[in-house]
Design a protein that fits this description.
This protein is of the alpha/beta class. It folds into 2 domains: 1-24 and 71-113 and 162-237, TPP-binding domain (Rossmann fold); 26-69 and 117-155, SIR2/SIRT2 'Small Domain'. Helix content is 30%, strand content 22%. The chain has 9 helices and 13 strands. It has helices at 17-21, 40-43, 46-51, 53-69, 74-85, 100-104, 165-174, 193-199, 226-229; strands at 3-5, 11-15, 34-35, 38-39, 90-94, 109-111, 114-121, 130-131, 151-155, 177-181, 203-208, 220-223, 234-236. The strands form 4 sheets. A 6-stranded parallel sheet has the order 6-5-2-10-11-12. Strands 8-7-9 form a 3-stranded antiparallel sheet, covered by helices on one side. A two-stranded parallel ribbon has the order 1-13. It is elongated, with a radius of gyration of 18 Å. The two termini are 16 Å apart. The model has no long low-confidence stretch (mean pLDDT 93).
């Protein structure tokens, strides 16, 4: 199967944990409700941060170690190559917090759930996030913002609003082709993006090893690993 992209098409890509899993990174939540052996409630909620910032930083520091070891796979590379063929007509939104898309060469993208390799002020003082690849052994090593607040991982905790939603909504409204890769269709608001695109008349394509929960919203479903399916899937007119 090949999917043709016309000169007038605008492409919106949404990627989820499945694409990073092919690089060896753990998916966000396994069948037993744990993330890398931890309860999500202990490492990814505002209450967890207030209660145990040292434990939260220890968890994300370990994720940074794993993320630095991982390498982009053929699916990441295929997305970067597609972007290069569609200047001004390609937008990538990822639910993943790793930087594999950037390392593969993608540029026009947002991390709606945050960026593992950035940190921001816990006080939300208005200063932008900073690049931060450090691995912290103790809480004393974690820097503070100039305002005095401790830096926290630039991660969207459960109960917090995903990042850059106005920009994402704008890009969806302009898209004529939405491609969703490696996400189950269970986590909102991302699971609702395909419905927005579908209602606006866009073609919608899903790529993943299993049918998603929102399969009825897609024009085409391509079952298989993204790293196998994506290379050569698109033809650009």
């Amino acid at each position: 199967m090949t999917i043709s992209i016309a000169p007038t098409d605008r492409v919106f890509i949404l990627t989820g944990a499945g694409i990073s899993a092919e690089s060896g990174l753990p998916t966000f939540r396994s069948d037993n409700g744990l993330w890398c052996g931890h309860r999500v409630e202990d490492v990814c909620t505002p209450d967890a941060w207030r209660r145990d910032p040292a434990g939260v930083w220890a968890f994300y520091s370990e994720l940074r170690v794993q993320g630095q070891k991982a390498k982009p796979n053929p699916a990441h590379i295929a997305m970067a190559e597609l972007e290069a063929k569609l200047p001004g007509r390609f937008f990538l939104c990822t639910q993943n917090v790793d930087n594999l898309h950037e390392r593969a060469g993608s540029h026009n993208l947002v991390h709606m759930h945050g960026d593992l390799f950035k940190a921001r002020c816990e006080r939300e003082c208005g200063r932008p996030p900073i690049d931060d690849q450090s691995v912290y052994a103790t809480l004393d090593q974690v820097p503070h913002c100039p305002c005095g607040g401790r830096l926290r991982p630039h991660i969207v905790f459960f109960g917090e609003v995903p990042l850059e939603m106005p920009r994402i909504e704008s890009e969806i409204s302009r898209s004529t082709l939405m491609v969703v890769i490696g996400t189950s269709g269970a986590v909102y608001p991302a699971a609702g993006f395909v419905n927005w695109a579908h209602q606006a008349g866009a073609r919608t394509v899903y790529i993943g090893p299993e049918r998603p929960l929102n399969a009825s919203e897609f024009t085409h479903i391509v079952e298989g690993k993204a790293g196998v399916v994506l290379p050569g899937l698109f033809t650009v007119a």
